[in-house]
Queue: 4 jobs
Job 1
Amino acid sequence: MISRRQFLGGVAATATLAACARPQPAGAYEIASGERDGFQATFAELLADAATDAGGDLRLAVRYTTGSLENLSLLASGEVLVGLTLADSAAEATTPLLAIGRVYENYFQCAVPMQSPFRSMNDLRGQAISLGAAGSGTAQTGRRVLEASGLTVDDVTIRPVSLTTVLDSLRDGTVAAALWAGGVPTPAAIPRPGHGPDGGIRLLDLSAEYVQMRARYGPMYEPVSVPARAYGDTAETPTVGVPSLLVASPDLPDAVAGALVDILIDRAQDLIPPDTVGAQFLDVRSLIQTAGIPRHPGAVEAYRRHHG
């Protein structure tokens, strides 16, 4: 008869052998992220650090970009094999794309100066506004938000500003309103001494735009709210949410895709930026909901290991 100690020792040995039998990824890979101080870039930095801390020979280097559209272009060209993107941008991609997992919720946030007379997107007719940095997924989705408000690009002046200059652009009147997508709070948009309008910023309620976008484009868009005091003395504000996906080229080795899933699951707490209050999707059941983008075979195998 086998003893309990022998049984437990056998289980441990089997687990060790199984781990050793899995291909161990090695090499350095760039991950296309987003603008510095934006949520995608911050998440990519944490993912790269977690890959290093996990040991082994897999290394990730963060490539800063203007956002989802540039990331998808880099993936299509083969310049990078891993990147982050808004789910709706991924759905519009014309080249093969595979998902590693859904990682967090992006909140569309449209800011105006606290003392601004504008209370809705529709109030911005005739104004200069930013729908996001050129090359960002926000700029693409921003047009949908604008149309859902009853306006067209002919009703406003589109003046793209980068996330890092949103506060200053609102202060100096470059734009009357600025839209971006990110986690909550987005560090670059937090008012601080020397940056931002006098009195701070206020977010516009986008709940009506959400209803129109959901009806036209489907459940990819979700109802979310930015909590009160996310950006100083701001009220809770309903808005539009869309998932952010970690995606890959079909050329990414299965072992690397699987290792990324392991990091997302095993080191989830290390991947949440400090002071974040927005929704995260770093558990197996949420990670696999990739908004219709097929999952990478290496990721599929890793999820089976974790969840059966």
Note: Residues 10 and 197 are 65 Å apart (CA to CA).
Job 2
Amino acid sequence: MRNNFRYVLITFAVVLGLTTAAFGQRTTGSIEGIITDANGSVVPGVSLTVTGLTVGLSRTVQSDEQGIFRVLQIPSGTYKITTAATGGFAATTIEAVTVTIESLTTANIKLGVASTAESVVVTSDQLGVNIDVSDSKVQTNLTAKLIDQLPKGTSFASVLRASPATRPEPASGGIQIDGASGSENSFVVDGLSVENYRTGTLNGVNNLPTALIADIQIKTGGFEAEHGGASGGVISVATKSGSDTFHVDIGSEFDASNLQPRPRAAMLRFVSSNANAAAIAANPDYTYLLRPNRDKFLNIYPT
């Protein structure tokens, strides 16, 4: 009985620890701003609604006594912010507010008088890349708009080279960040670690298609203690979710044999062994044109 109780207690502790780690690896962001009137004075108690344009989410909050509002822990994507008409102020709309993984997006609102409807356009990067001035991490965020504009392959690993510190390196585990091999990096998809349990590198089945990606964050320095096992970098990926609009993505991939490189012919010095002779016999079309005549006296192929 005592052993069974101990087993249950240990199992519960392990599950609790894994759950805490999973919740610690966030895939959400936040929106913050100040609501002011035409003269720059703060306006408290204003109700505003955040509606997802690419995410099926809607949330309503109010500004505090200092006119500050915060919308915390919302999925990465594009949102619209609307304020209701109140206290002599007109309704206001902010279009295309982009939220990225673990970043704070600033969206300040200036209210107009009640006689007019105010439409505010937030001045930001056209590709949705925002700079979080409150964060000290060294990171690169790739939004869905930016990914669409980049030359890429079919999987998300093909766009990671957009980060200055990241480059593909097949000899060191696939992805190299700041000189660290692939096994020294951490890969997180929707809050879950997806590294290979044996090699620590990214599994091929977890290298998701770019069409399914909503946001990619590549952290190369100053990241949180929850990623303490990563001595290279942390790559966090958020997948797309449903929204209120209907959309379809169709793609195809093919390899043309005529566009593929042929086996490179090797200049052979000695052909006295059976292995070299077999190699030449197996690829006669690629070797006979490049092979000079064998020097019968020295028994070598001159170079």
Note: Residues 18-24, 266-273, 285-290 have pLDDT under 50 and may be disordered.
Job 3
Amino acid sequence: MDTRFILTLLAVVDAGSFASAARRENLTPAAVAQRIRSLESALGKQLVVRSGQQVAPTQDCLSILPRLKKIAINVAQIASDFDDTGLAGPIRLGAISTALSDRVPSVLSRFAAQAPAATLSVTPGTSKDLYARLLDEELDAAFLVRPPFKTPKSITCIHIESQPMVMVTQAGDSRSPEAIIRQEKALVYDPTSWGGQLVTDWIKAHIPHSKILCELDAVEAIAIAVGHGIGYSIIPAWAGLDDLVSVKRVALPQIAQSRELVLAHRRLTTESIRLLRS
């Protein structure tokens, strides 16, 4: 069985169509379809069903997907077996939105300079989504908010930084936090997100529900909106917040919780971890 055909099948399942998978694999849709037929012939099972332009995996295909993913991972990592540092193969990194701007650029720079043989891919997402992809072995590591529960032994979380919760309002606003809360609408850091959960109780105690404009799991978008004069918010002070000159940050010492950014990973080498966290 040609492992390239397995990669093509995984691309089809992920993309949902032969055409999209073909673009990813740099093939023609006809070549993609031929590879799928070859796999189906070798396995004696139908692996996908077509409905117009869309393609969906069959139950037989879903039952073997975890094994196929592991095969793809092992094949991709063969090159790293000849490199004691573990930096010669692919590294699949996830990052929440703030880490994409705060952390990922320097990570790319270090890998380019110190690990040119590595193939680094970066996937954006929420902490919950990235953690799920780590569990499913679709990612090797991710910058995310520390999970609010005990993680399995297969996942290691390394502390990166603590980000205190602060109030953000438009630059030049001289009002007290109490006055701002009374007079303005709040853009609330999504209370269902791991970071937003940290301030849910404080918000319920201090901000009437009628004064909440919206809930959003995107602190950068919240800060930008506030900078345009749209209300205020209580969000973590990530490093990039200092670069937004359109907003003013106000310390809230009464909120003891901080958002903890961690590097969660599965079995990364010491050298890989060093380049990711430095």
Note: The CA atoms of residues 33 and 124 lie 29 Å apart.
Job 4
Amino acid sequence: MDATARNVLPMLPALAALAETGQTLAAADLLQMPQPTVSRMLGRLGRELGVDVVERHGRGLRLTRAGEALAPHAAAAVAAATAGIEAVQAQESGARGRIALAFQSTLGERVVPALVKAFLQEHPGASVDLIQTSRPRCLAALADGTAEIALISPLEEASGMRQWRLHTEPLVLVVPTGHRLSTRARVSFEEAAEETFICMKRGYGMRTLLEDLAQASGVTPTIGFEGDDLATLRGLVSAGLGVSLAPRDPHGATGCVEVPLTNPEAVRHIGACWLDRRPSTLAGAFQELLRRRGRRLTEIGLRPLGG
């Protein structure tokens, strides 16, 4: 391996991420790096090669022809490294025992199964105990030792707690078919200020997100109904009883229209958290899986069905 190859190898993930996402901000989120760091890395890559691999495009960056030529090779290098790591992890598949995983109800249908399946494929001798509950109870399960890892949204920033962001998902305004906002390409949350809202009960993550968005928008929402799961909320919306704030429904919401929101705060950050202490062997293995494959598995789990 020559000197140029040794120098460019650490920078190839940045190029692969930009090629995959098309945006420096999204690439930075994928790599869990600050955006300026990714931009500087791409600049250094071009200088090392003697040809620019990115160029300015509006407020962001896009690949040059040289960058486009290098991108598939960069992706192949990242994939090879990932495969090597997984091969090493497979040597540890003899780990046995039980791990307890707490998670919010809104993550139980798609995200949790994808992560648990991948974990058990790598550690077939392990067992996973699932605790499905509200966000505060997920955190309480970590505190009292009932669970070793919690999947929550929004993330928890607290002393003695570690977190790992898995995905940032846009939220939508769910309205009944035929509603005055149902034909709009997008709306601001403020435009729904006079609507009756159907939301999760207090203590659920989606209720916290609604309250945070309302506060940021200067809106005091009128709460008509409260529920324990998103399917019930969408059913009430489809009956014309109000509107709701929710992530997109992978099944498609019958009798409802999901209208994108323009507010930058209208997102939910999905992630994992655990206590900042030495983990058990299985908890450490699950944390490592989250770092290696968690973001990709979460994104796949949240894709629309058939998409």
Note: The chain has three domains: 3-90, 97-166+269-302, 168-268.
